[in-house]
Amino acid sequence: MLQFALTAGIFAVMPGADWAYAITAGLRTGSVVPPVLGLAGGYIVEVTVIAVGVGAVVSSHPDLLTVLTVVGATYIVWLGVTNLLELRRGVPALVSPAPAAGTGTGTGTATGVPSDGLHQFLRGMGVSGINPKGLMLLLALLPQFLTPGGWHSGVQMALLGGIFVLEILVVYSGVAVLARSLLRSRPRLATAVTVCSGIFLTGFGTWMLLDALL
Fold this sequence. Notes:
GO terms for molecular function: amino acid transmembrane transporter activity. By secondary structure, this protein is mainly α. The protein has helices at 2-12, 17-26, 33-51, 54-59, 62-86, 117-129, 132-141, 153-183, 187-213.
């Protein structure tokens, strides 16, 4: 189990679409908890799918996997473009002190960008949960650490997946909080990071689309 925790930890700290979204979450004035929980929730769905055996069915049907990839990639592209378009309304970041009491916009952020917790949770869940790359990674990783003759394979996968989700929570919370701490008083850097996150998400999703369709 320790070996799995170390291996899964390596994957958790590898930058990707999840990291880009966690950084974006850190740049918003709302709590980082909902989006990070959303990212973890997406992986809980994937672990559950694998534990009950659906993951193997998906991986054995190329057409179904292609459809899921296209859906996930399209969502990630949409999320990246949305982040870039939000710059036109103001960077959704902590780039200045919060407004004095009674002078806020009522939107939940210093820039007028909505910061609805459920909305951010669902966005995070979408980034990780409908990304077939994460599903295939877990599908390849989890079976390697099962103990022959031990508990039911589904139970073992669920436990190992739980360890991975806990690591995801720790790593992505750290990424979001660190982004917030470093960029609180650096509006130009916050803008640059927001642009880079949007471009990365858009590019990553586009690459997934091309890889699935070509």
